[in-house]
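Entry for the shared binder. Reason: the reviewer on the internal report wants the predicted structure included alongside the sequence.
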Amino acid sequence: MLVPDEAQDGLRDVLLALKPRSAKKLHWTESDSRHRDRVVEEISAEPVSSIGLVAILDLLARSERRRRIAFERLLLELTTVGVDRVVLESRGPADRLDRQHLDALRARRLLTGIRVEHIPGAAEPLLWAADAMCGIIAADRRCVERYRAVVGTKLVTHVERR
C-alpha cells in the first residue's frame, strides 16, 4: 500500500472506524462479504495506491521461499517508484529472515536506499489496508472480481513465475 505522508492520518482514522470493536485489528479473512465491500469502498476513496505481488512456483516450494521471491520483487518495484521506507507486519522471530534477505540483496547491490521495518499488525492500522489489498488479489485469483473492480487502477498486481 502506497500512502502519501499527508494521507496517512486520514486513512488510519478510516481503518480504525472499520475495525470491529472486539478485534485487535481489521483483518480481511475475519470479515464477511458485506464488511469487505465497505472496506474496499472506503480504502478506494482514499488517495492511495497499491502494488501487489503473486509468486507462482512449483507446488513443492516452501512458503518462505514464496515470500522471499515476492518480497524481493516487491522491493524492486517499490524502489522504481521512489519509495524509500517500507513497513511490514511483524512475524515475530521470523522477521530476521526478512532482514537476512534484505542484507543479501544489498550485498548484491540489487537494493540501495530503502529502509524496511517490522511493526506488529495491531499497532499500525495502515497495515490493515495492505492486508485488504492482499485479500482483494486472492479473491481476484479465485475469480471473485467484484473487489478488484472497485479498486481499479489503484492496485497493480505483478506475477512472478519461477
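Summary line for the report: Helices lie at 8-18, 33-44, 63-80, 95-107, 126-141, 146-151.
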